[in-house]
Amino acid sequence: MLRLLSVSLVAIVIAAAPVAANEFCDKELAPLVVQRKELFDKLSAIGKRAKEPGAREQFCTTLTAAIGNIRKVVDYMEQNKDFCGVPDEAIDNAKHGLEQNQTLRKKICVAGAQQQQSKDGQPPIPKPPVELKLQ
Known about the structure:
Elements: H1 2-48, H2 55-79, H3 81-84, H4 88-119
């Protein structure tokens, strides 16, 4: 009887392990998910008033924070893949989203800053020391 009870307890613990792991993982990821939602809501609000002065700088700062958040989520998912039961597809999707946001940041923040410099009369890229002519 005691042996049957111990086998039953082991079976219950093994069966409950994925549930406990998922609850633990959900609890660990919850603050990052909440932060991500707040950041993307803020990005959306800034996007609606994109023509206002300083909007691009606010957008870029918030986007950089969002990219950092996504990077933390990807790192967590990769480190706890087996324990949390994270599918490879979810990790790949998160990495793809990270790449898209990094590309967006390059287009808006880096290229936009260079265009702003050229409007101010400063060349974004220095001219070569020699005059080049195409033949």
